[in-house]
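Re: beginner question about structure tokens

> Can someone show what the tokenized structure looks like for a real chain? I only ever see the sequence side.

Sure, here's an example I had lying around. Input first:
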Amino acid sequence: MRVLFHICCANCAIYPFSRMKEDGAEMVGYFFNPNIHPYQEYQKRLDTLKVYSEKAGLEVLYRDEYLLEEFLRNVAPCPEDRCQYCYRVRFEATAREAKGRHFDAFSTTLLYSVYQKHLLIKETGDHVSEEVGIPFYYEDFRAGWRKGVEISRAMGLYRQQYCGCIYSEKERYANPKKMSNDKAKSLNEIPIPKVKDRDSSILCSKGK
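And the corresponding structure tokens:
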């Protein structure tokens, strides 16, 4: 099985890449993240993935587009629902690329993160799968969270401090104490933290 994985960052790719190899599947990465801002942060994550992919032997396709204006135009009216837009636009691009290149399925390394909205990711992946006409490969990679963190630190990879968009950057640095407590909780909690069900899937009603 050949699966095209949307990759949000190098750190989140480590464990899924390991798991896919264990299962005898071929994982190819696809970097397209118009949600990452500001530009210097975007470039750091792009460069780090290039370093990791070369060391690990992971093939990656790069769609290197810094779409700040497009991102803001789509999320500014209702920023609380930005995650829904972020997931969908990246999954659609990955799915269409996968179908065009005759992959067996598409997926995302966002399924590894304990900080992401896991059920919304799966739901969005399934919807995009139906629309584009290619299977969405689902696996809960969060079980390997600690392993991935240990490997990334051992490799000396750049580890980002917030999800990616300017809104998450504000949340991270405007209230660093809360973020620090949340991080400590997620790293020490067993089992993997429970995911909120559809906590950002309600469509914005402003102006309707």
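Each token stands for a local structural state, so reading them left to right follows the chain. Residues 180-208 have pLDDT under 50 and may be disordered.
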